[in-house]
Amino acid sequence: MSGLLLKDLLNLKHQGRIYLLIIAVYAVLAFFQQDASFLAWIMVFLSMMSVVNTMAYDENARWDRYALTMPVTRRDMVLSKYLLSLICLGVSGAAALAASLAFGASPDDAWRQGAMLLGGGVGYLSLILPLMFRLGVQKARVAMTLAFVIPLLLVVRLNPDAAALSAAAWMLPAAAPVLLAASASLSCRFYARRSF
Fold first, then answer.
1. In 71-161, alpha helices (H)
2. Percent share of the chain, pLDDT over 90
3. Which residues of 135-167 are buried (b: 16+ CB within 10 A; e: fewer)?
4. CB contact set of 42 (below 8 Å; sequence gap of 6+)
5. Between residues 17 and 159, the one the model is more confident about
6. How far apart are CA 118 and CA 12, in angstroms?
7. Left, alpha or beta for 166 (phi > 0: left; psi -120 to 50: alpha)?
8. What is the mean pLDDT of the chain?
């Protein structure tokens, strides 16, 4: 599995410069606004898209068909993507927390925002990864967009108060292990039935 993870990290190296440029632009904006909340959101969003992009690269190169001729199980293929998800979200979450603190957010606010962003990221990936393993990246694009837009519209429409946001900030990370475990199990089941 370490080889699969290394392959994905090397693939991400090529788009890393573009991501760094995007983050730099938002860091400048955050500096002038003295608010790193959108910068933190962008970093977590880019980490989620990194996982999706590695699956798109694999699909375009027909990697799965080749990889399954090697001593790699389908379960290894699935779990390597979940491990990559945790690494990407962990790095972006730490960077988002550091940025929030650097721009003057209180430790409580920075932790709350970081917990919500990471919980939301885990929830999103837990939902879309099984779809991508079942349908492929191209066919799952509409579902991926809806899985992102619908919760965003609900939050804007409901306009939750500070108490609700604070409760969500602690509930989302607490639910993350259960979501990931259920999602990984479903993905393994879907991928086991898929033909290439």
1. 74-102, 107-135, 141-158
2. 32
3. ebbeebbeebeebbeeeeeeeeeeeeeeeeeee
4. 22, 23, 26
5. 17
6. 20
7. alpha
8. 86
